[in-house]
Amino acid sequence: MSANKAKTHPIPITATKSAHVPDMDAYRQLVAEAEADYSGYWSRLAREFLSWKTPFTQGLDDSRAPFFTWFEDGTLNVSYNCLDRQVERGLGDKTAIIFEADDGQVTRIDYRELLARTCRMANVLKARGVKKGDRVVIYMSMSIEGVIAMQACARVGATHSVVFGGFSAQSLRDRIQDAGAVMVVTADEQVRGGKQLPLKAIVDEAIALGGCESVANVLVYRRTGGAVGWNASRDRWLHDEMQAQSPACEPEWVGAEHPLFVLYTSGSTGKPKGVQHSSGGYLLHAALTTLWTFDLRPDDVFWCTADIGWVTGHTYITYGPLALGATEVIFEGVPTYPDAGRFWKMIQDHRVSVFYTAPTAIRSLIKAAEADESVHPKRYDLSSLRILGSVGEPINPAAWEWFHQHVGGGHCPVVDTFWQTETGGHMITPLPGATPLVPGSCTLPFPGIAAAIVDETGNDVPNGQGGILVVKKPWPSMIRTIWGDPERFKSSYYPPELKGCYLAGDGAIRDAGTGYFTITGRIDDVLNVSGHRMGTMEIESALVSCTELVAEAAVVGRPDETTGEAICAFVVLKRTRPSGEEARQIADKLRHWVAREIGPIAKPKDIRFGDNLPKTRSGKIMRRLLRSVAKGETITQDTSTLENPAILEQLAQKN
Ligand code: PRX
Questions:
Q1: Which residues pair with 42 in a beta bridge?
Q2: Rounded to a whole number, what is the distance in angstroms from the first to the last CA of the chain?
Q3: How far, in Å, CA of 533 to CA of 598, rounded?
Q4: Running along the chain, 655 residues long, what does each successive block of 10 average in pLDDT?
């Protein structure tokens, strides 16, 4: 069987011209270099790409596996590498960030000014008692200030934990508490799609829930001037604080393994995991992948549409592009406001040359363009585009082809980048000058990444046969541990049966001919809805915490044309099973409940009520059957082990 049925796209001539990795031979040479001397390969790159205060003497240390370290005795500062270095290279006047607000207002900031403001903010952190190793939670809108907050933490050696602005007070509280944060940086409000949404009020609510006693200060960026509650002993306006500080701040030199950030993501159990990343290894891969995968050039205008609350925003907004001295666009709003031509208009206005977005956005913009010609990309001048990228979920070949044809004019390579919060940067991806493209395939491992496909016992499976995606060797930007839970790190990513391989949690298949990888989806209880990662258990816990109504709940994913996957919840109520209007009302109430518990992104699209759930005689919920029911399939599987087979028919009924 061939995994890649779609046609191959040859490398466009525009992409090969002086690309950083200019052809397949160059790619193979890098792969061979890594194979011949793995630690030496990464060490060479770490010396070339990063400025070290104290040079390291050893690359990989695997003596405490799976707690691997890289460049451990070297010291550096991440913010120095992103900002001071550019000014010292003569790029002080170069635009670092072009910020476009929700209402279209544009603000530019050059490297010199970005450094000065980062220093002021770093001095604020110090003045408010934040020390090296302290954790700072950042709950911010998309803004230059959000990037400055992250860079300022890096400058003083504090570990940031950015929480996506769409998470609820409860989720924010859990993250503040788990990280033991000493400070929260937020904004009064955020603006998205013409609406003002609270941020500071949610921070207040999170802290009021209790368990956040570690938080001594809340810094508030004034975005809208909307009314906010104020606790005079704890809350400070960021602009007041920054004004009082000097625009110079000596960086705190930290060891390469110093935790740059902890970012929470969903796993198989109910509790999100704090993925801990390093400083040196992480920054190396952020810079290297930004350069090679996007074939970045000095005059490029790079735009990654992700939010800084997710890993894509960390690596491809805050760190990778700045470490290379690039010019990047940051967007506050949503792709459909004031209309679904917003992305195309922004590419046109800012002469964006490298555009990196998510399949969900592409799919929804295809729908919009098909319904309304005036927001079709052909209505805009997109001639500045050179490279397109996709991230976060599988991109279906039809969306790939549309993106390539209508946005890229048929001549821009589309790099389908596979990676994860845990991997820090791209793992499997085409390189524009080197890799012929196949829609739907993320093609080949980034040079030096030992991606492979194995069976349940860790043995290689032949190409053409599906299996479990693993990484056989540790790499510099890998997760170091789960914050506060090293045992969970070991059991989640290094299960003994996989013989020392990193378990990604995805299934994959390699093409029998080309060896290209295609990701077939998660093999655990993790869902991917609009590129947002969520655990089914998290949503189940949220539902059953509505103790007044819910007796039992099971959550599964089902394929969705626009969002990739949709959340489907099967619920047993404490009262009799409702129907009709009443069922719809209760379903709405539960959706609202989940939004309050986790955030609006976790709302189930479909909620079905049953007298019971399909269980085996030993009481285990048969999720496999629920997945079929959610998809609307006729059950052909054997149901003889079920205690109550009739329940399936009941659950198949929509409200
Ligand atoms: O299932 C894979 C999917 O997203 C998961 C990682 O999600 P997260 O940690 O939130 O990081 C998203 C941004 C990197 C993976 O385990 N995924 C990510 N990129 C792709 C993908 N699935 C298919 N193709 C991709 N290019």
A1: none
A2: 40
A3: 12
A4: 63 75 96 98 98 98 98 98 98 98 98 98 98 98 97 98 97 97 98 97 98 98 97 98 98 98 90 96 98 97 98 98 98 97 98 97 96 97 98 95 97 97 98 96 98 97 97 98 97 96 97 96 92 93 95 95 95 95 96 96 95 89 92 82 85 82
Q: Judge if the beta carbon of residue 99 lies within 6 A of ligand 1.
A: no
* pTM for the full predicted model: 0.95
Q: Is 557 exposed, middle or buried (0-12, 13-18, 19+ CB in 10 A)?
A: buried
Task: Report CA(325)–ligand 1 centroid distance (Å).
Answer: 27
- Give the residue, out of 506, 525, 529, 538, with the most ligand 1 atoms within 8 A of its beta carbon, to mutate for a pocket test: 506
164 lines ligand 1 (CB under 6 A): no
- CA of 420 from ligand 1 middle (Å) equals 5
Using CB atoms within 10 A of its CB, is residue 233 exposed (0-12), middle (13-18) or buried (19+)? exposed
Using most ligand atoms within 8 A of CB, pick from 393, 523, 530 the residue to mutate for ligand 1: 393
Query: pLDDT tens-digit profile of 87-135?
Result: 999 999 999 999 999 999 999 999 999 999 999 999 999 999 999 999 9
- Whether the CB of 312 sits within 6 Å of ligand 1: yes
Ligand 1 centre distance from Cα of residue 430 (Å)? 15
CA distance 369 to 363: 10
pLDDT in tens, 224-258: 999 999 999 999 999 999 999 999 999 999 999 99
Give every strand in the sheet of 354-357, ordered side by side: 106-110, 95-100, 327-331, 301-304, 354-357, 387-391, 414-417
CA distance 324 to 545: 46
Closest residue by CA, ligand 1 atom 24: 394
Closest of 121, 180, 176, 197 to residue 154, by C-alpha? 121
Task: Indicate the burial class of 243 (C-beta count within 10 angstroms; 0-12, 13-18, 19 or more).
Answer: exposed
C-alpha 285/C-alpha 519 separation (Å) is 21
